[in-house]
Here is the input.
Amino acid sequence: MELFSNLAHGFGIALSPTNLLYCMMGVTLGTFVGVLPGIGSLATIAMLLPITFHLDATAALIMLAGIYYGAMCGGSTTSILVNLPGTAAHAVTCIDGYPMAKQGRAAAALVITTIASVFAGIVATMVIAMAAPSLARVALNFGAPEYFSLMVLALLAAAVISQGAIVKSLAMAAFGLLLGMSGTDLESGVPRYTFGHPELWDGINFIVIAMGLFGFAEVISNLERHAGRDVFKVVVGWRQMIPKREDLAQGWKAILRGTVVGATLGPLPAAGAALSSFMAYSIEKRSAKDPSRFGKGAIEGVAAPEAANNAAAQTGFIPTLTLGIPGDSVGALVLGALMIHGIAPGPTVMTRYADLFWGLVASMFIGNMMLLVLNLPMIGIWVRMLTIPYRLLYPAVLFFISVGVYSVNNSVFDVLLSAGFGLLGYIFIKLGCEPAPLLLGFILGPMMEENFRRAMLMSRGNPFVFLTRPLSLAFLVLAVLLAVFLTVSSMRARRQQQEMAGG
Amino acid sequence: MRLDERLRDKDVLAGLLLGGFGALGLWLALDYRLGTAHRMGPGYFPVLLSIALIVFGAATTVRGLLVGEERVRGWTWRGLIGVLFAVVVFAFTLRPLGLAVATVLLIVLGALAGRESRLWEALALAVVMAALAVLIFVRGLGVPFRVWPAFLGIG
Here is the structure.
């Protein structure tokens, strides 16, 4: 079968000593930084991204993926022990994970999340291996109008999923697109939005924006909050780590359900890890015989969302790798990394860079196994790291971000610009503007313009081309339906809240 | 709510800020050739985006005026200025003074941005990070950094 020969080929690449080393380094670094409280998984990836630029493309992607699922896994440790979710994807894990820790069942919670993450990761990797080639084949038939409409859908979904008013997130997405226009226009050679700086002729580097918005801004805003935090003195001997029979009995079905939810929602635009962990949690709560256990340390409430977010984290690579359209900010970072290595994203990546694609998929199997080894016996070390005070962490974070930004182009200008985006990011946090749609817009901006231009050239300037092509129309209809559905449901939720508040 | 209270609403300010960026984008984009829908010039798409940004920004502000319920609060200057100052100093000292000195400056100044930092801890951390920086980035990844100040003439 083609699948197996492809996978075998991938393992041949992923098992080479260098790639194995980078996979190991990625997973370890990701877990390490992911565990550290106050540093979310996006900041983790953004911070470690520049390290991967010095490698060849395959090793870089393998390491990057390792950092990502390592950070996801490490983030769950922090959620359970300190009640501090590193990302939205872990927010639900806190609901039952923290009570479990308070009851002295922290070890059991950590073990079940690790098992859930690893199992879900392996299944999701299989899904990628099976689904990606056929999706890429479909995408080969996409023309410019289809791509444009698909990007509209992706941006709209990202805006709708974000917290806060949808118009505000749409404005953020539009601002991101506009920032993406900075640099030389490829068709006319005219420099746009460069403010007289030759450093901007190639456009703003996406690392500069990501580090500013997710790195510097996060540190600044964390400095307001951090006072003392309670970390549980967790006993994590071998005995506590062996899962109890009833835990496993209750947990394994939750893991299965969570995996299915995550693997299905992961590739959808903007759905990603956060939404799928929420979905998985509410499915568990709704289908449980005794829903009142939830919130008080129900093991399913930890197992299902962790399985879901890890599965979604991995299947989320599908649209990024096959269509060249990232579903969320992490996908946007991965896509940016691909482009820095000179790989034009799109459906041809799988065939033209088969080594990279299948090597990456195979490395995900290996990396998940490493997570198991890394997490279970070494959990004591990760727990101890939680006690590192933030006052020692954040200067180190500042350093890694600054050096990282500088080293991409050896540019002082980039560091200053990134500090500027740090200021902007802090203002955005204060004004409740989520940066995710902005980053997605920024990455999609140039592609969107190119496809818009091409589509309009094809149709001789007739904008109805987006509505007359069936697939393009389908994407746009989907986008509108999504927006309407979520606006209505959020309005209903607000009305209910007001009624409750009003008596 | 009074008007000046309303104006401090998160959505009102966010809309003004983003709409303002849209206006700036539009003003700059008018310098680029617009072209036609059939053959777009460099200005076409930016103009469309700027208009969209202005519209969404205005809608956000209006929404904030009508139903906004969250005011901006808890602005801290110390963390903001401290962190940004540390990074700017790092950027300007990296080339003339080298990676080691710039790192120490970044860490110590950065630590001053937090309220809980202690000076001796920051100094110790700075020395450790400077050593790590040289090990990882110069020896490990081979990024061409000047390690010591230029005037010492040792690399």
About this structure: The first strand of chain A starts at residue 183 and ends at 184. The mean pLDDT of chain A is 84. The longest helix of chain A spans residues 106-139.
